[in-house]
Amino acid sequence: MRYLLAVLCAALLCGCNHLDGIFGSSEDAELYTDRAQYGSDEAITLTLANRANEKLGYNLCSSTLEEHRGGKWQVSALQAGWVCTAALYLLDPDQQASFIFDFATPRPAGRYRFRSTLFFNGSAERLELTTNEFRVR
């Protein structure tokens, strides 16, 4: 039984050939906001650029907003109440997709970023990216 578990774990790890891109920009994709600073009530445009040689599955609406508090990144309470479809869209190589986040309530001043999970060509292989840090004043 232990042998089977070890083989299964090794197979899963070997299948993750895009691990370099986890938590940041990678050679396969880039996730970024349109500006580095926003007013508390301004909309934020999030853009995904596919640099891979295959389609990427994504849903930018389901991205997680994080804020820097207490010396670490945490999911923002502002995310409560967001409504998104459960759709997974496909982005062709060398294409971009954008989504505009228009918050219902003003955001407090602070440091923020978005985190999004992407999938390679409909497979279970994932790539998790974070945007640039941005400030709300």
Mind explaining what this structure looks like?
The protein is mainly beta and 137 residues long. Helix content is 9%, strand content 40%. The chain contains 1 helix and 11 strands. Strands 2, 4, 5, 6, 7, 9, 10 and 11 form an 8-stranded mixed β-sheet that branches. It has a 3-stranded antiparallel β-sheet with strand order 1-3-8, with no helix packed on it. Strand 5 (64-69) and strand 6 form a beta hairpin. It is elongated and about 40 Å long. Residues 1-24 have low confidence and may be disordered.
Q: Report the radius of gyration as a whole number of Å.
A: 17 Å
Helix-and-strand structural type: mainly beta
Mean pLDDT value:
81
Q: What is the overall silhouette?
A: elongated
Secondary structure: helix percent:
under 10%
Estimate what percentage of residues fall within beta strands: 35-45%
| Element string (H = helix, E = strand) | HEEEEEEEEEEE
Uncertain segments of ≥5 residues (pLDDT<50)?
1-24
Q: Major β-sheet, in short? A: 8 strands, mixed
Strand segment count? 11
Distance between the termini: 56 Å
Tally the helices: what do you get? 1
